[in-house]
Amino acid sequence: MSRREVWLAFVLVAALTLGVGVRGRLVERRVDWDGLAAVAHANDVFRAEPAANLAMIGFVQPPLPALLQLPVVLLAPGLATSGLAAALQGAIAAGIAAALLLGLAAEAGLGRGWRWPLVAAFALHPLVLGPASMGAPQALLTALLLGASWALMRWSRTDSLRDLIAASVVLAAALITRYEAVFIVVGAMLYLGWRTRRASGSWSRLEGTMITFALPVVYVAGIWIIANWAIIGDPWYFAREAFTLVPAGLDEMLTASLRVALVACFPVLALIYNQMRGATRSPAPARAAAWLVLTAMLAPAIFPGVFAGVAEDGDWGRLVTVTAMALAGGFAMIAVLGGEAVAGRSRGPMQGTVVMIAASLGLVIFLGTQGAGLPGPFADAYWGRGPLSDSAAPELTAAEQLRRSDLPAGSRHIVVGWPGFAVVLFAGKTGEITAIRAEDLRREWGRLWVGSRVVLLAGREGLETPQSVPISMMTELKPLWQAGPWRCYEVVRAGPATGSRQPGTGDGQPATGNRQPATGDGQPATGSRQPATGDG
Amino acid sequence: MAESRPPQVDALRILHERPDECACITITRRQQLTVVVLIGLLIAGIARWPLSTLIALNALFILFYVVQSAYKFYLVYLSLERPVLHDVSAQEMAAVSDDDLPTYTLLIPLYREAAVLGRLVEGLARMDYPAENLDVMLLLEEDDEETIAAAQAMTLPAHIRPVIVPDSQPKTKPKACNWGLFIAESELLVIYDAEDRPEPDQLRKAAVAFRTVPDNVVCLQAKLNYYNQRQNLLTRWFTAEYSVWFDLFLPGLTASQAPIPLGGTSNHFRVEPLKELGGWDPFNVTEDCDLGVRLHKHGWRTAMLASTTWEEANGAFWSWFRQRSRWVKGYLQTWLVHMRRPWQLLREMGLADFFSLQMTIGGSLLAFLINPVYWAMTLVWLLTHSAAISALFPPAVYLLGSFCLLGANFVFVYMAVAGCMARGYYDLVKYALLTPVYWLMMSIGAYKAFGQIIVRPHYWEKTEHGIFDLDEAGGEAP
């Protein structure tokens, strides 16, 4: 396979994904909140006031998507404020995943007539195209897990140091793309240990292999823990904030995990069975990928509380790693086993596998009829309404109105509540505005600087009062104006009352009073999203 | 005993024929002037704009770290991605009959190494090469009466002969090698140290490999590694370093067709081109590194041979320290010699090779020098949060510096791990995690070298061999 073919796959898939993403953002006005959070964090590193620095990369959100956005937001701020930077990252990740799959299929022996349809099926899968076009970190995770699957499969075959290092590095990257990938990392270590011990019987080789594999992962995790400790004061802050342990049943999570994996890639269970049978007797070419998928699927059942508390928007939000691993490992196994089949080297009888694939397909169709299939209509992903994305239209409208009338250029504002998230990104005010999640506001009070404005969305913060609100020994919030659902306060030094201004008069800016509520209720956007800033 | 003392050998031919490429004068007037001007500008800058000058200097160093790290990672990636080693299978070797093998000269410089002579001759007997095609020269210094006496006392096979090198300055290994080179009449030539244990088929492998490599490849560098790697912590680190250098870094340089700093031994040459070049530079204390660059500059190429020579790692700290400072001094000599006319060198080598030379030789030297400064600054900042240090790191410099501190340093440690793995030294992997301590030791050695190049530029600090007795240890070269 030529390099040109690899590049062609990358360019075609990235362009398609970006096109869908641009349509989704500009026409459908849809966003993926996790993707936008990464953009906002990256922006803050360069433009947050009063302290733009690397610590603004955020700590609740895994850092890699934001770190990768740093050059984009630095060189093309317009891509950040328009939200397209997220779509760009998703498109590049999808392109890389497609190129990896093409290379893997070619290496497995699939000719062009087979590998290109396989890549097309992957790239056009609603759970690949949808999140990638919306800029969800899931796209990056899928690409990384595909790379890890390929590297581990090759390592199993060749014992090559290069593949061992590649697997380790991409899994370390996966860990800081989605924290739950830690279970896949542990699964990979178990596989490496088992495979090395079985192949060589040497303890020193096992030791060397494990250190070589674990070192990048441990180092990356260690740096992140130390950063949390040094900056936030709590080494486990990221885990505490990202995971809220929720009681959940093993059977409930296992069922959810199986369903998600099957809907993402229906032959996956059959292929795992095919590769795992006879594991103690004979090798299998895609056993590493099968093991990784199995690990990802079992983790929610073994640690149900962890996954149940990851997100609030149902199984698809909670089980992103399962989805990504099922897609990556599933398609990797299809490529390898397809290559074996084409070459007439299939391992053992395939009847059981074929029956399981047929049964899986039937089950997925049945789930679809019961409303438990894909998260949203199949075709939505192609029109920029990717599954798991949210509409930003009401927030955009409110943000536009706010920007036009009430946020004078050069002034600094803190917008509290999830709707403010869109304000930050779309109002063209990045660098002047910081968004804080409503529930984090009280914790952040001590850090509000005098002279800044705090814009609250009425109806949920419980702070909407026309009176001055003391927020620390030194400062208090002084009401300035009220406009539609927004109420603006100025942070002033605490002291003798100087006569509070009435809302709407504020600092001389007339409240227009004619704005419509942004979302009516100021509800936070759903999902596992985290605040753009304010988490550290 | 046959003993030859050729009267007409010009071991200093490079000095007479190519003085511009000889380290007889370590630093030229023009270079001295350049150094003085640069230091003057730096002092003036610090006096006039102290903070700006220091920030600029810091930014330059950080940028250097980024570029050099990226280049080294690239080379290691190349070596893993497409290893370029000339391997010769047993079948290929068997296909060449003994009669078709070229004549081979083995140069073995010895100085005060009477104790290892017996083992050396035994080791040579194990070489799988027809004796009638071999000419083994034991290069003995005239004033080394002990080793000469030991050689005279032995009954040497016909293909092994002592060659007495007249006592003259500089008294260095390359000068002795030149004596051997200019009297050699064979097609191929290789250098081994007294304690070396090359793989028995190495000569045969190299001879066959020379048939398949392009004509402009005049040198095949075998890999070097240590047989006493588990002697102590120092030899473990040293082994990790050599494994990275010979198993990852040099193959990467070969893959990118860049100049290769040769290892001290086990470089197999075509004799005629080497004679044309004037042989080794007797004034350079890392004549191997210099020769690798010089070969490349003159259009010749070096390739890596998939064969290993096992050496003795310095297991005694002070001996290691002296050896290290000599190596760094030699690298500095080499860099100064080839950078006498930078523009001319750039034209001769091309931009890519020139850049590679700066990174592998000049860059290594600079890194040795500035590493301790940055480690100290990091430590002081961690302890004191000094505003003076913070002021040197504006945001962009800080970001790049953070990358170097957290990313590049880790990858260099990881390269040591990978080197041990590539060599199959699985039990050494854990010791590779401690290599930052070894880096500190190397920097200290480098500072000694920088001082010594001013006061004793051509002084050869002899490496002590025979401290570890492999036979007594009951071990075999791996």
Describe the structure.
The complex is a heterodimer of chains A (536) and B (478). Chain A has 536 residues and is an alpha/beta fold. Chain A folds into 2 domains: 138-376, no CATH class; 392-536, no CATH class. Chain A contains 22 helices and 8 strands. A 6-stranded mixed sheet of chain A has the order 4-3-5-8-7-6, with helices on one face. Chain A has a two-stranded antiparallel sheet with strand order 1-2. In chain A, helix 10 packs antiparallel against helix 11 (203-232), helix 14 runs antiparallel to helix 19 and helix 15 (287-302) packs antiparallel against helix 18. Chain A is globular and about 80 Å long. Chain B is of the alpha/beta class and 478 residues long. An 8-stranded mixed sheet of chain B has the order 3-2-1-4-7-6-8-5, sandwiched between helices. In chain B, strand 2 (134-141), helix 6 and strand 3 form a beta-alpha-beta unit. In chain B, helix 3 (50-81) crosses helix 9 (233-255), helix 3 (50-81) runs parallel beside helix 16 and helix 9 (233-255) packs across helix 16. The longest helix of chain B has 34 residues, at 351-384. The interface between A and B is medium-sized, with 19 and 21 residues.
